[in-house]
Amino acid sequence: MQRLLQDAPTVEQLRSRILRYRNPEDLRPIVQAARRARVVLLGEASHGTSEFYTTRAELTKRLIAESDIRFIAVEGDWPSCFELNKYVKDLEDNEANSAREAMEAFNRWPSWMWANREVEEFAEWLRAYNLQRSTRERIGFYGLDLYSLWESMQQIIGYLQRTGSPLLEQALHAFACFEPYGEDSQSYGISAGLLGESCEEEVIRLLQEIRTSDRGSGGHQSHRGGEAELSAELNALVAADAEHYYRTMVRGGPESWNVRDRHMVHALKKLLDFHGSDAHAVIWEHNTHIGDARATDMAEDGMVNVGQLVREQYLKHDTFSVGFGTHHGEVLAGSAWGAPVEVMTVPPAMKGSWEDLLAQAGEGEDLLLLFTEEHSREAIPELVGHRAIGVVYDPRHERGNYVPSDIAARYDAFIYLHETHALHPLPLESLV
After folding, report:
1. By C-alpha distance, which of 337, 413, 408 is closest to 377?
2. Most C-beta atoms within 10 A of its C-beta, which of 124, 225, 246, 308?
3. Does 224 fall in a domain?
4. Could you tell me if 334 and 306 lie in one domain?
């Protein structure tokens, strides 16, 4: 970490800028500032903190009431999130009787990111809200990520079989290329990235054929009447970009990160096109994805992210990003990739960090900050360490979890929750 500030005058200046957050009604200034944006990006400082999820859900409900929000898109896999989407929209092919039953589809580690009580409660609220609206007005729940290479291929095959598509034989041939790797992404990545034995040509050709077939049936207008076609195209996009991701991941460097975040923006654009030119969206992802990379040291490493790309594509006035942070508490995480999930202690923020400055300024209360003309950024340090916790966490090595950030350039608003608690994972058979 390049720099942490310990500046008492800055703390005093922050006190004149902060807003107290004591109940959901206090979110009103953020809702008012964000409701006109076409894309509202809501972050989290970890994937395992209950208050990040519940506050994000509360903000989303209020944005739905005041804006033409047509879908929520999250840092999750397309196939599993689409099962939950079918439930909350009550689509014809939905087979789940509850959100929890639909969430059995989250069967890949870390399942708790989406198979948790906080998301379950929001999904049940969203279904109840949707059932009061016409089918065309119902709000969706989609996944933007690309880790589901094999699951997406299986979904494509199933769709082509159900529709009697002439592309079925081509798809079976394309996906046969992956069979020797037994759904082992690392093995495929090593073979494709280091040995040059890639399946890239096959999946790219299939994606192009599916797109051509869709245009022949009416383009995105045909999607407006059926999400099955949309899902097939998004699964094909996942297959193509996931192949690229795993091929680049073994080489190291920023390229695989950039492939992933560019994919998420590409998927977001597909969803916005599908829902129409007047559609608005809410994005739920980690701060490292939704906060503008150009305001962090990520830019120095040649990395881009969703927050930067969306601002560049839709212009800053058409986007609004909200970062989150906490001073101390608990978090749900694993000690290593694939390790059993556990409740871990989040130690007090490091002295001079962004979270420490807010703890001092707010004297232990939850806070809101708006980085707009009405709420000057004069008191905000140009560069300050800002904590980020992933699905893998070791509280003993905290210094490496802080990202040097120009906070007011990285986000449009910030929600500080002084003490937080771990997510509540659902007791699903698929949860590990």
Report:
1. 408
2. 246
3. yes
4. yes
Closest residue by Cα to residue 307 from 60, 59, 37: 37
Q: For residue 73, what are its two tokens? A: 């898109």
117, part of any domain = no
For residue 372, give the DSSP letter.
B
- Looking at 243, 278, 313, which one is the last position of a domain? 278
Q: Is the pLDDT of residue 92 over 80?
A: yes
The CA R_g of the chain, rounded to the nearest whole Å, is: 21
259 in the same domain as 296: no
Q: Is residue 92 part of a domain?
A: no
Separation between Cα atoms, residue 208 and residue 226, nearest integer Å:
20
Cβ proximity of 162 and 89 under 8 Å: no
| 358 touches 366 (CB < 8 A) | no
Model confidence over 194-239: pLDDT tens digits?
666 788 888 888 888 887 776 554 444 334 448 999 999 999 999 9
> Is residue 183 located within the same domain as residue 289?
no
Kindly report the CATH number assigned to the domain that includes residue 339.
3.40.1660.10
Q: Read off the amino acid at residue 86.
A: K
Beta partners for residue 71, in sequence order: 140, 281
pLDDT at 383 over 50: yes
What gap in Å lies between CA 16 and CA 375, rounded to an integer?
10
Question: Do you find a cis peptide bond into 110, omega within 30 degrees of 0?
Answer: yes
The two three-digit tokens of residue 235, written as one number: 């699964």
- Structure-token pair, residue 389: 């916790």
Q: Contact, 94 vs 288, CB < 8 A?
A: no
Both 241 and 292 in one domain: the answer is: no
Instruction: Give the domain-ending residue among 225, 255, 278.
Output: 278
Are 267 and 315 members of one domain? no
State the Cα–Cα distance between residues 302 and 293, nearest whole angstrom: 10
**Going by C-beta distance under 8 Å and a sequence separation of 6 or more, which residues neighbour residue 69?**
40, 60, 63, 139, 280, 281, 282
3-class DSSP state of 161: helix
Q: Are strands 39-42 and 319-333 parallel, antiparallel or unpaired?
A: parallel
pLDDT in tens, 148-173: 999 999 999 999 999 999 999 999 98
Q: What is the mean pLDDT of residues 47-68?
A: 97
Residue for token pair 């997510």: 423
Report the C-alpha gap between 344 and 336 in whole angstroms.
13
Output the CA–CA distances (angstroms, integers) from residue 72 to 138, 160, 185, in the order listed: 11, 27, 28
Backbone angles phi, psi at 272, to 5 degrees: -65, -40
Determine the Cα–Cα distance for residues 81 and 108; give it in Å rounded to an integer: 12
Range of the domain at 371: 1-77+281-432
Does residue 130 form part of some domain? no
